[in-house]
Amino acid sequence: MLMVIGDGLQSSFGVFSFVIVVSVAMRYGYGTSQAVVLLFVAVNLLEQLSAQHALASDILFRSSFLWLTAVLASYFRELADRTEGLLHGQVLELRRAYIDLATAHQELLRVDEMKTHFLANVSHELRTPLTSIESFSELLLDYPDDAATQVEFAGIIHAESRRLGRLINDVLDIAKLESDDTRWAIVPLDVSDLLFGVARVFGPTATTQGLAFTTDIPAVLPPVVGNPDRLIQVLTNLLHNAAKFTNRGRITLAAEHLNDVVELSVADTGIGIPSEHHDRIFRKFEQVGDVLSNKPRGTGLGLAICREIVERHGGRIWVESAPGAGSRFTLTIPVAGAHHREPTNADMAA
Q1: Residue 335 gets which letter from DSSP?
Q2: 17 contacts: CB under 8 Å, gap ≥ 6
Q3: Do the Cβ atoms of 9 and 2 come closer than 8 Å?
Q4: Distance between CA 19 and CA 36 in Å, rounded?
Q5: Claim: this prediction has a pTM higher than 0.85
């Protein structure tokens, strides 16, 4: 139809100018295409004037047509760019979603592996004391007149029963902490009194194992707010871990007031922990080493429980250790009234 309207586009120059304008508009957009249109209009006018022809209406048509062509082609190019941008953005979103999904999948696989490891560990730990209790109970029935043997076997049964109880308590503790199913009483605490009480209870254990036990506790420390039973649980766990992994030497329970926190620590001269395992030992359901080896066994939950309790008090816990150089476990509890937000009973719903 455009070839019929006027004879401007029937010439080679008209067709050439039309193609050039469309190409430039689709490639460079509004500004450049308008400049090309002005150039062609100027060339056409100069051609007409040099030939001393009167300006015909078809010149106005060609000029308007070229301008409209440039505008429409540039608009279509802009629409194409917008569409391409939207598609590119959606591709990026899909790629990010795929990466997030792959990451979540890997995390689920890791958690599933941890759960499997945990169940294998707990199953083994449950089976061992149960087997001991069953075996020694049967043996006990075969020695009705041997009092010494009965006492020995009863002692073994009692020890294995306590071990089984500790295992079950650890599993229940971690389940309660994760299910938000227990409320803790939050009260002001005298840290010095709490530490001296823990030291009095642990002292005989260290002595029995032939370990020196010392304390470095100031007589006066600023008060903190928390649950005494839970903090005693953390310190007791750290002390018993220290005794478990220390064959000879010393265990030290210490405290220090640093700015707006009270720093508590348990140090030992035991076997130590490689640096690459410092973070791992605080994870739930994990242990360092093979659970079937001859190392002292446990559920792999004790330090995870300690970290959960400390963090719910607004503090943090970490370890400094190296193989053969002993370990020092340190935790902080915010001082009452410090700029840290003090834990409330709602926070302590474990």
Answers
A1: B
A2: 40, 62, 66
A3: yes
A4: 11
A5: no
